Amino acid sequence: MFHKGQRALQDKYGGRKVADKIAEVRRHDAFTDEDREIIETAPVFFLATSFEESVDCSMKGGEPGFIRVIGPSTLAFPDYDGNRMYRSLGNILNNPNVGLLFVRFDGVSTRLRVNGVAEIDDSPEAIADLPGAKRLIRVTARDIFPNCPRYVPAMDGAKPSIYAPKAGYTPPEPEWKSRDYIKDLIEES
After folding, report:
1. Domain range list for the chain
2. Quick check: 158 pLDDT over 80?
3. Distance from C-alpha of 151 to C-alpha of 138, rounded to nearest angstrom
4. Rounded to 5 degrees, what are φ and ψ at 178?
5. For 143, how many CA atoms within 13 A lie in the half-sphere containing its CB?
6. What is the DSSP letter of 166?
């Protein structure tokens, strides 16, 4: 779970025993019922990807339930229409190692980290039952560990995004697609 850089700092600052105990007690590689509940009720999560000098962290969102646990160590989420830069997916294509962070912004709930290996499935079968999906991303978890909610602000009262796809609903086009410098390019594709 720890690479040599992390170990070097744990040793330098006296954290190795604490890190080892947390990993021993909290780290797992199969989703628990509590993990599943956090994941499948999330309206958003953060996805970290990298390849060489390209590092990216993006927020992925949808209606709660858009990301699902589909196996003991596997979750899946739809890739919706975006800005067509493919920063996350391009990184995954070249380096499938990813980190996901689930945070409930209520100031008390445990955060959940999932580190694993992602794959992109753009087959019609994979997205057939996912309104608005362009592709499906599957992540096989290597490390799953809950994290304390310290420093997570309470932001109760948040409303779901009007752009989240769901059955029987066509989200409005985002404002950026109508900007002068991009609207003709959007219409071409």
Report:
1. 1-26, 31-188
2. no
3. 30
4. -100, 0
5. 18
6. B
103-142 pLDDT, tens digit each: 998 888 889 999 999 999 999 999 999 999 999 999 999 9
- Please name the residue that has the structure tokens 């290996």: 117
| Calpha distance 74→70 (Å, rounded) | 6
Domain at 31-188: CATH architecture: Roll (2.30)
Length of the chain: 189
Backbone angles phi, psi at 56, to 5 degrees: -145, 140
- Cα–Cα distance measured from residue 172 to residue 111, given in angstroms and rounded to the nearest whole number: 31
Q: Rounded to an integer, what is the distance from CA 127 to the centroid of its chain?
A: 18
Q: Which pLDDT value is given to residue 189?
A: 62
Residue type, 37: E
Token representation of residue 70: 């589909």
* pLDDT tens per residue, range 65-74: 999 999 999 9
74-103 per-residue burial string, b: 16 or more CB within 10 A, e: under 16: bbbbbbbeeeeeebbbebbeeebebbbbbb
Return the residue matching tokens 């990298």: 50
Counting residues of the chain whose pLDDT is more than 90, the rounded percentage is 74
